User: Which sequence fits this backbone?
């Protein structure tokens, strides 16, 4: 990291103003800026931290889920993903979600980083994982609300899907491109 | 788009359960899934739609902002970004935010897509823009809460920053990699 004189904000007070446990909490904070100003209604939105998994098969195709998601409100191409359960490490969540949602398993895993979903409000931290040599070992059994189809796409097909608007989620696009860029 | 039998959810009712105008609204929805099940507490979080700008100079460096952001709670490398004001097109917002935050202007603009911030809850739509041949035409004057430093990074430096955890925002990483992938 370079040297910098930039300073963080200081949280003076934080009050929970909405909650729907265990999914959502909204807090209203009073914060002090480095220049001395005080802001008395800056909100933070606490959602579950989650994982996004880019699982590559031995022939370098990626395990993709076609499904409806309610955030974008349409059917699109997604990646295996899900919230981190209490007591789970992010890697354990990634391995569990890949197996449950797709029936795939992999031995070689790498974390490509953690990134906050919304730069102002938070909205959860996404842990992005790359898994190599993924292979189908079981039938999917996610228990999720969404029905899905499993596809295997190569890097060219993924780039085309992003360009054509078939990948509606910012996190999925970030994870897919991080992996293509790392390969 | 490929043919698919996957169906969207149907929103049966939607009730506002928290709002902090004009920034945040949380709705509790009753939704019907394609298999007939009904879920009576699926939430949607409405935040402002926003733009993220990747502005490249004539020598292919990107205009980067080093600043504290309260979502990640730390100083990191960001891109020019901001909420779309009423009556503004996303392109107008992108051009305004680039100029206000960095003092840069550009003539050639391209939209690289729209992506929802959170796949389950929504949390706003990010419009990602690429601007070519950006040049400094004014002093920055953002009026934002955050102080910032303006940097120019080349593609190699951006990849290193992402790998080193210096870019804490999912949207910024998605936008930066979309651009590197498109160049």
Assistant:
């Amino acid at each position: 990291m370079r040297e910098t004189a930039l300073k963080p904000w200081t949280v003076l007070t934080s009050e929970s103003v909405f909650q729907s446990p265990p999914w959502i909490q909204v807090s209203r904070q009073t914060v002090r800026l480095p220049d001395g100003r005080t802001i008395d209604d800056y909100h933070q939105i606490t959602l579950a931290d989650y994982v996004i998994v880019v699982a590559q098969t031995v022939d370098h195709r990626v395990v993709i889920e076609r499904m409806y998601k309610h955030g974008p409100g349409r059917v699109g191409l997604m990646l295996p993903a899900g919230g981190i359960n209490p007591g789970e490490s992010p890697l354990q969540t990634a391995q569990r979600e890949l197996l449950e949602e797709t029936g795939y398993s992999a031995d070689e895993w790498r974390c490509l980083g953690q990134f906050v979903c919304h730069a102002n409000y938070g909205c959860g931290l996404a842990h992005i994982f790359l898994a190599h040599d993924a292979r189908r070992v079981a039938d999917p059994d996610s228990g999720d609300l969404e029905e899905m189809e499993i596809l295997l796409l190569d890097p060219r097909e993924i780039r085309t899907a992003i360009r054509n608007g078939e990948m509606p989620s910012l996190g999925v696009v970030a994870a897919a491109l991080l992996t293509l860029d790392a390969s």
